[in-house]
């Protein structure tokens, strides 16, 4: 009688069943981890968005006064405003609209995120400090030797800056965000476990964690932050856009249509020691016998394109100006109305030059 041989039928079904156990487990956790990563990116987005919004706000303005020209009173309100706006827009984890929807959580297949909180505050550690130094000391001539520094010169302090009372290092703002992430009941915590199960180790534990915008939690607190420096003023304000015609007969008199910028420029000139002496006038007086201006006086001139200003009357000695003028001023097509005043004094005060 022939011996019975085991039939090979059913082997592939058994292999498929065993493989599916592993494949389904890997697939479930792959989906879960992908959801955790995707939803955590929304927390990062909620922290960065108010930083970019803050760059649209006025940090300071220049006042029309000789001293304390820089006004930074609006700066402290920037961080609270962008934080409030971000918390409103990202309450539903979707910042594409100006207001949030009715939901305050997002649930996917195995993962849920809720409790979004955005925090922004003024940050003095984000800084770009001002150049600071003393004013240069002036030497007095000494026959047959190097000049010497007369005692008692007021050169200020090493912590002074030529931008004092005009620009302040107010720093910037920094933001962080956090949210609560948990695994849903659809993610099984037990599956063929135990001593007789296919998986000998515990299959899963219920996930519950805090997602931070930057880094991990430290003692349950999200300490990582993103910062941005504010205050890079480009002098594009309407208060500073007026023209400022040269007034050679009236030094230190502000131009009426751009007083704020005039006072700011003159403040820098003053705090830098003005011309630091009268060497230029003394040079002119020695060789010519006359100095046309006092170099310690302040003059400022700005003529914008809106003035249609071109120097038509080019004085002798400036022959290259006619060649370069189309590139420098925009060309004759501007059809300017203003005409340059004829020069009656030239280099070092010589007349009829």
TrEMBL record:
Region (Disordered): 309-340
Biased composition (Basic and acidic residues): 320-340
The keyword Transmembrane helix is assigned to this record: yes
Keywords: Membrane, Transmembrane, Transmembrane helix
Membrane-traversing stretches: 12-34
Superkingdom: Bacteria
Protein name per UniProt: Pilus biogenesis operon protein
